[in-house]
Amino acid sequence: MDLTPTEEQRLLRESAGRFVRAQYNADARRKRAEAGEGFSAATWREFADLGWLALPLPEAHGGLGGGAVEVGMLMEAFGEGLVDSPYVSTVILGAGAVAAAGSSAQQADLLPKVAEGALRIAFAHSERQARYNLADVATHAVKDADGWVLDGAKTAVLDADEADLLIVSARIHGNRADAKGIGLFIAPRDAEGLTLTTDLRLGGGKVAQVGLAGVRLGADALLGGLEDALPVIEAVTDHAAAALCGEAVGMMQTLVETTAAYIKTREQFGKPLSVNQALRHRMADMAVAVEEARSLALRAALFADAEPVDRARAVSGAKAKIGRGARFVAEQAVQLHGGMGVTEELEIGAFLKRVVFFDAMFGGVDHHLKRHAALSAAGRAA
Amino acid sequence: MDLTPTEEQRLLRESAGRFVRAQYNADARRKRAEAGEGFSAATWREFADLGWLALPLPEAHGGLGGGAVEVGMLMEAFGEGLVDSPYVSTVILGAGAVAAAGSSAQQADLLPKVAEGALRIAFAHSERQARYNLADVATHAVKDADGWVLDGAKTAVLDADEADLLIVSARIHGNRADAKGIGLFIAPRDAEGLTLTTDLRLGGGKVAQVGLAGVRLGADALLGGLEDALPVIEAVTDHAAAALCGEAVGMMQTLVETTAAYIKTREQFGKPLSVNQALRHRMADMAVAVEEARSLALRAALFADAEPVDRARAVSGAKAKIGRGARFVAEQAVQLHGGMGVTEELEIGAFLKRVVFFDAMFGGVDHHLKRHAALSAAGRAA
Amino acid sequence: MNFSFSDEEKAFREEVREFLASALTPDMKRAQGLTPSVFSDKEISDPWHRALASKGWAAPGWPPEAGGPTWTPAQRWIFATECAKAGAPSVSPMGVAMVGPVIIRFGTPEQKAKYLPRILNCEDYWCQGYSEPGSGSDLASLKTRAVRDGDHYVINGTKIWTTHAHHANMMFALVRTDDTGRKQEGISFILIDMTSPGITIRPILTIGGDHEVNQVFFDDVRVPVENRIGEEGLGWTYGKYLLEFERGGGIAAARLRRGLQHVIDMANGEAPGQPIDDPALALKISEIEIDIDALELTELRIMSALQTGQNPGAVSSLLKLRNSEIKQAITRLAVDVLGYDALVWEPTRPLYGLNRATLPEIELPVVPEYLNSRAFTIFGGSSEVQRDIIAKLMVGL
Amino acid sequence: MNFSFSDEEKAFREEVREFLASALTPDMKRAQGLTPSVFSDKEISDPWHRALASKGWAAPGWPPEAGGPTWTPAQRWIFATECAKAGAPSVSPMGVAMVGPVIIRFGTPEQKAKYLPRILNCEDYWCQGYSEPGSGSDLASLKTRAVRDGDHYVINGTKIWTTHAHHANMMFALVRTDDTGRKQEGISFILIDMTSPGITIRPILTIGGDHEVNQVFFDDVRVPVENRIGEEGLGWTYGKYLLEFERGGGIAAARLRRGLQHVIDMANGEAPGQPIDDPALALKISEIEIDIDALELTELRIMSALQTGQNPGAVSSLLKLRNSEIKQAITRLAVDVLGYDALVWEPTRPLYGLNRATLPEIELPVVPEYLNSRAFTIFGGSSEVQRDIIAKLMVGL
């Protein structure tokens, strides 16, 4: 039992921290936002060069074989600088699904390109009516002589506008919320009948609604030939949620540091705000929330490859408590910044928005508490 | 619309306050507790003389025809001094049930005696398996040629040991949790087959488990001849809950005043504790909780005779929020008193115990929130 | 004690409802419903202000000689409650509710004659020049200077958080006319024509993406001495008088209830988050509803005390604190109900000017409103300041 | 990073489990389970202490020369966790965990030889004389005086909150030997034989109805000078060293988990409050379980840092704060599960001495424990003090 980082992990964390501090300060982010540009291709290449895109991918296909703990460290650094990259959508969700369920041919085709930074993949699974129930898939896939035909609609697809491929879930058989009968399909973004409605995303990046109207895909488009992909969907979603938990920890850390610096220097009635014990105690509670989040994000990562029920309990526990803790920290960071906190002039608001994004993604506090309780029910019965 | 008290109400409130301050200080309470005596017969007579026992009873039977608002004012004064009388059990629950459902003969027989202080009535309704569901009654009553025979068990019967009569609910027909088929029976405390297991009650007074083994009652024992008494049970329970809400307000008020006085005078590091902003803000939140409780207790009283669904929503709303607020105030009063707060040397602990009693009585915060939500569901549907 | 309205009060309520049914147009209601900012836009509030003015109802708190309707506290409560229930815009408070009462109390006959009718009839649009970048809760530390030059003051400095400065033609401001004594002394209360040379306005966007507040710069702005209210150096007194009005809060329950109903409406619809039949959501709605019930009954208790000539005590801080906290709880719950739709960020303003958006119209204001509502516990006396006041005035600490 | 125990650690865990299976009797477990006070009664903790001593495990933190088992941080974590899981009593900390380390660090060879074996073998029972009626969190303001008279100190004054003074034959105390300088100076650390003439003990009942703490009065109590630890006037330094041990907290998650399991067991039974299939209860249990998960992983992170020779930083306040808050949340939830059974107040102590009671045995300690657990956020540095420390050391304020 040793939860201190290895030398390798420490170096990864430090290099990520350095990169983010150098490139992701407030000015750079504001300039990019004002220029209205998406995520920079140059930075994505730098991610590839630093090995980050290859990090969790299998070594057999150009990856480094890292685990959720390493991903969490990277994400924590991203969170500290509010990096708005398509890392989670392409590497964790998209490539993660390919790595978990793709045939050897699909893996060999796609994963090295992701690792090199030459391919981006979006993950199109959620549907509006599903309300975070991962088994609720109304989009359907029908097989005919030429391959597959997909019809349906997806929501909350991250970074689809700049993706080359989409992994789309669709029901092959069964009823709408059945656990069985869901497949994952590889679809080019420019497939005929596939439409994107892209909006700015709260907290940075883009989000799309995806329409699928008679989208024709080849017979080999079904990922791994798998007609029961729900366990894969659950696993990559849990991995992505764990990664976002790591990112949230980084955000919380920055919020606490920024706010502490502010109340130490901002004067009122001739004294720094930090003379107010009520504010100091608030900040103590914020610091406690960060430490608890750090422990639970790490715990979720450590359980990422455990038995599904243990993995899911660890991830839902982390997602619920960090969801609440991050909201508390971000809202209080705004509060303690006073008037300046509620403007776009400071970065605090951008962090709060990303926190709301975090909480909404894959389900909020109530959803994950309920999932945790449901997964625990058997163990609690007499 | 005028929520200021009438002159009559003001006088009632003031006389109750005076009485309690004179007779219910900590020393008197401690002496009574140490003497192990029950509620003093002399004080009960004084209650009668002051008109308090008659207060909510119908004028036709020796009562004063007061309403829940007047009862709430009295209870608030009781709460300020932590009075541990059988007022709620006898006057609100016991006599309340007789007034609501008794035949003219039963009312004429019993109510004047209650008003005079010559009769105490306990209300034996709750059962262990019911878990606060008022319709869940397993105790059954069978009619035969000689009258009724009751079998079953009751829990949480307040002040039964000193009561002359018990009003016992029992199922006449139907299944265990059916809304229909419950009757209320008048049983002498010394009826054969009726056994009491009496314990000290948390926060003052006594509580009993009641066993009923073939208890024979006359044919006229059924209150009002009513075989569907659940609405009556719900009404008197709501009235009692509203009364306890008033009492809780008084308790909260005393806790805030006592704690404020303590932190203003208790010195640490050469300064009064109240120099700590964190403590002042805590006390501000406690004061806010008292004002909110005051408003909701009054609201519950104002709705006491409204349509059942409106009455129940008002009472459950008050019970839930005051349950939480009183717990917060009492726990923080202990906290702010430091070491002294967690001993039996101060009265703070006695207040906390009574607050726990309040929260447990008729169901806690979750129960009443759930009841409020269930009663509100129809109004929230699209 | 009487928990129902009198026949007269009921008749008045009927009159208000009839007025609302005719004067409050569907367009006004839609625009107000799609307003995620704290204040209604001028183009929303002005038409409503004029409709009220034509009925003689624009300035409920004013005395009759100034054009007020001489309502009882109960009537004011009924009016505010019915307006909120109906979804009416709010009238810009800076004129009617803020500078108006100061002019009425402390202004010269000439000032009253000049400004009050123009406020009442919505001819002037006012903004408030109190806060400065360095001042925060320590308002009296303000530095904007007004130096006497003949029969003018020459003003230099800057004000911040100036709501609707970009709409206003008039500002009332606290400025420093003397800095030799205590910082509260030497402050004067002055009325500034916003078209004066030397004024520049810098917009400040809120985190919700709205242009509501500004920073205003004064560069040798000349203001006639006759624009000063009361005595030079007593501005702090007048300013505090006004702040008591601002903090009053008073009649907020009905507006909160409407906000909660909006959450319920969304949860009954297609929003992809928590649906109305989710038990956890039902409990949260109940919790907030009970909070509003408590606030409403507190308002009615205060209204009753005022009605019978009693002093309701130091409760305005309590009302402000709870109103802002409940408002924030409602907007947070609304975001939960949005689910994945919370991810869509619509930057266009005003929202009621949008012809089409990815989100259903009912969902459009939710996230910006959540973000903007963070300001409720900051402006007009932060929650921390309110707790300081409550501890002092209600608990005696 | 490695999230599983090594083979050696697993073997040790097995050894601990085997020891617990044989040494921890059903009677001890029952008595501990029916203990609603913070500390285990002497008649519970002593037999357990002796069982541990016979295995060489009574003093995990002591160096080998003093009789400690030379465990790694991981072994200490495993040991404490397995003991908590098994429901073992706690060993009285005043000797082993409090005065022991002080004697080891600052004691003379004679003091070490005299006291340490008697602590280890459970021959002496210690109590702590720090707090005084007027001192509270301001411990250094203590007034109990020790005046030198030949080769004795003569002690006059009073100590309060003295846990198990009525069981103890020895007390370690902070006393004032000088009051001319700063209040922290002039304090000495002294060992007092509780059988000395002039000592009287007044019991103080807790709100849970337990006799755990006392007030101790000293009336010309003579203590040999050789009973002073270290130098006269440096007692504050020694006392602070001890407090750091007391605040450490360290390994609490397993005990909390056992407390939560008790709630689950009751909710699976006949307790008339919230049953296990109540969704609201299930969510609350999950919330607490997640809180414990977070605390446990924080403990493991700290243990790992210690294991690799790193400094875990200022986390003991965080552990104390969260441990006490979670403990209170568990006891509060337990009361909810009791429902109407919470009304029954059982005044007899000890509860494990009761032959019959109205309540089922599983429910007996619940309400007293809820009440007593209020002390968790007060003693050993109140939550307010912990937040002051966290703000200072973790946030730099």
TrEMBL record, chains A, B:
Domain Acyl-CoA dehydrogenase/oxidase C-terminal, chain residue ranges per copy: 232-361
Residues of the Acyl-CoA oxidase/dehydrogenase middle domain: 122-199
Keyword Oxidoreductase: yes
Highest taxon of source: Bacteria
Domain Acyl-CoA dehydrogenase/oxidase N-terminal: 6-117
GO molecular function: oxidoreductase activity
Organism annotation: Camelimonas fluminis
EC code: 1.-.-.-
The name this protein goes by in its record: Acyl-CoA dehydrogenase family protein
Keywords: FAD, Flavoprotein, Oxidoreductase
Keyword ATP-binding: no
PANTHER family from the UniProt entry: ACYL-COA DEHYDROGENASE, ACYL-COA DEHYDROGENASE FADE28
Required cofactor names: FAD
Entry similarity comment: Belongs to the acyl-CoA dehydrogenase family.
TrEMBL record, chains C, D:
Domain Acyl-CoA dehydrogenase/oxidase C-terminal span(s) in chain numbering: 235-392
Keywords on record: FAD, Flavoprotein, Oxidoreductase
Domain Acyl-CoA dehydrogenase/oxidase N-terminal stretches: 6-121
Keyword Flavoprotein appears in the UniProt entry: yes
Database matches in InterPro entries: Acyl-CoA_Oxase/DH_mid-dom (IPR006091), Acyl-CoA_Oxase/DH_mid-dom_sf (IPR046373), AcylCo_DH-like_C (IPR036250), AcylCo_DH/oxidase_C (IPR009075), AcylCoA_DH/ox_N (IPR013786), AcylCoA_DH/ox_N_sf (IPR037069), AcylCoA_DH/oxidase_NM_dom_sf (IPR009100), Mycobact_Acyl-CoA_DH (IPR052161)
Domain Acyl-CoA oxidase/dehydrogenase middle residue range list: 127-221
Keyword Oxidoreductase recorded: yes
Pfam families per the UniProt record, alphabetical: Acyl-CoA_dh_1, Acyl-CoA_dh_M, Acyl-CoA_dh_N
Cofactor names: FAD
Protein family membership: Belongs to the acyl-CoA dehydrogenase family.
Name of this chain's protein: Acyl-CoA dehydrogenase family protein
Organism: Camelimonas fluminis
